[in-house]
Amino acid sequence: MSVLIEASGLRLARGPQRQLALPDFALHEGERLCLVGPSGRGKTSLLHALLGFVPLQSGSLQVFGRARSREADFVPLRGPLGLLFQDPVDQLFGPTVADDVAFGPRNMGQDSAQAGQLALRTLAALQLEHLAERPVQQLSGGEQRLVALAGVLAMSPRVLLLDEPSNGLDEASCERLFACLLDTGLPMLIASHDQTLVQRLGTRILTLPA
Ligand SMILES: Nc1ncnc2c1ncn2[C@@H]1O[C@H](COP(=O)(O)OP(=O)(O)OP(=O)(O)O)[C@@H](O)[C@H]1O
Ligand SMILES: [Mg+2]
């Protein structure tokens, strides 16, 4: 099984005084690794560090077979590592849902028509086509989360980084989420407090100790 992400001895800088020490881990092809641990322990910080949004104080990080430490190492990962933010408001630009989901593919060079079709197909896979013309500010919390996920999936990522993906979703929406995620066949790193999600999706658990 090939290694996609490998981290050892990572410490993250969190403000001038704080450092977060993280356990060593690897993510392999075919895995869905669940990150669990108390609030404030560093699950979100770890996901953000994989994209260079939180600086590494020390340790070694390899992604797709290459060492990553400086900004230039992380830029090419923003796309192949598809991050679903813990707060979907951080992710949605709008103006409409369809525009928002098409934004990533357009940014990667697809023309408007292609990007628009891909956005609609991706929304349909999550049974969200009825929201396509809605302004993103007018979505419920759960709808925002699913639309943000559609935006991530439309970028054709190689690996998903999902930060509390089931937060705020009702049971039926969770079922759709699980089915859609499993359907992608993608490897994933999932930060979650949701035991049902961990049991249903996880192939392995990484616990960040208190
Ligand atoms: N922008 C920031 N600057 C400085 N410190 C931060 C920042 N964001 C978060 N922190 C701190 O970093 C630590 C880890 O936070 P993080 O959000 O990674 O935890 P978490 O495990 O994801 O928590 P939760 O389960 O509540 O989502 C916390 O102590 C938090 O207060
Ligand atoms: Mg978090």
UniProtKB/TrEMBL annotation:
A cellular component term, taken from the record's GO annotations: ATP-binding cassette (ABC) transporter complex
UniProt-recorded name of the protein: Cobalt ABC transporter ATP-binding protein
Record flagged with keyword ATP-binding: yes
GO MF term set: ATP binding; ATP hydrolysis activity; ATPase-coupled transmembrane transporter activity
UniProt cross-references to PROSITE patterns, sorted A to Z: ABC_TRANSPORTER_1, ABC_TRANSPORTER_2
Domain of life: Bacteria
Keywords attached to this entry: ATP-binding, Nucleotide-binding, Transport
UniProt-listed Pfam families: ABC_tran
Family indicated by similarity: Belongs to the ABC transporter superfamily.
Keyword DNA-binding: no
PANTHER family per UniProt: ENERGY-COUPLING FACTOR TRANSPORTER ATP-BINDING PROTEIN ECFA1, HEAVY METAL TRANSPORTER
All copies of domain ABC transporter, residue ranges: 5-210
InterPro entries for the chain: AAA+_ATPase (IPR003593), ABC_transporter-like_ATP-bd (IPR003439), ABC_transporter-like_CS (IPR017871), ABC_transpr_CbiO/EcfA_su (IPR015856), ECF_ABC_transporter_ATP-bd (IPR050095), P-loop_NTPase (IPR027417)
